[in-house]
Design a protein that fits this description.
207 residues; alpha/beta; two-stranded parallel ribbon; 31% helix; binds 1-O-pyrophosphono-5-O-phosphono-alpha-D-ribofuranose
Length: 207
Amino acid sequence: MSADEKFYVSYNSVHKICQKAAADILETQGKPDVIIAIGGGGFIPARIIRTFLKKEGEKNIPIQAIGLSLYEDMGTGQDKIGKEVIRTQWLDFGSLDKHFDSLIGKNILIVDEVDDTRTTLHYALSELYKDVQSKAKELNASSSGTKFSVFVLHNKKKTKRAELSKEQMNGGIYLSGKDVDDIWIAYPWESHDIDAHTEKAKAQGNI
Ligand SMILES: O=P(O)(O)OC[C@H]1O[C@H](OP(=O)(O)OP(=O)(O)O)[C@H](O)[C@@H]1O
């Protein structure tokens, strides 16, 4: 693949990556109590992986959406781009079952489509962890059983701007469907011509 070529991802390959990841998660972590999707890119993989995490006859795993956007100030130079995370939406347990009013003690799966500089995942994990700590303090409860796993479709092999704290993950795993070079990933949901897109993905073996 030439340096200026994009890495085309098909819906089919997304589905298969989620299927395989779900099997790994079930085997090593057990069934998550809640999936936290980082929008917008995490929504589709979160919904697909839920299909494979649920066994027949079981209740659906709730998906919570959080909105995180990398602040891109194009005017201030390349080194500033994507450094700041803006929180546009956060957890809302709303009318979920009354026992589900926090993440304390839960087996949590955070899902996004891509781990690029890791800034977003680091922000999500550390803020969710802080939420658990402060809620546990408020309720005088123990947060020790809370664990966070992370699943992304693709991880870019590059120097990361942040790391995920093992202490915060508390035994949870980091799982990437595929580690790819630091190139532009073209996801199917961004495509204006899905047939041409899928053909390109197939030609690259991403089916
Ligand atoms: O590893 P990082 O360098 O933090 O980058 C990864 C993040 O960047 C993209 O989000 P974006 O802010 O573009 O929003 P979107 O998901 O709505 O497209 C992507 O969806 C990840 O959340």
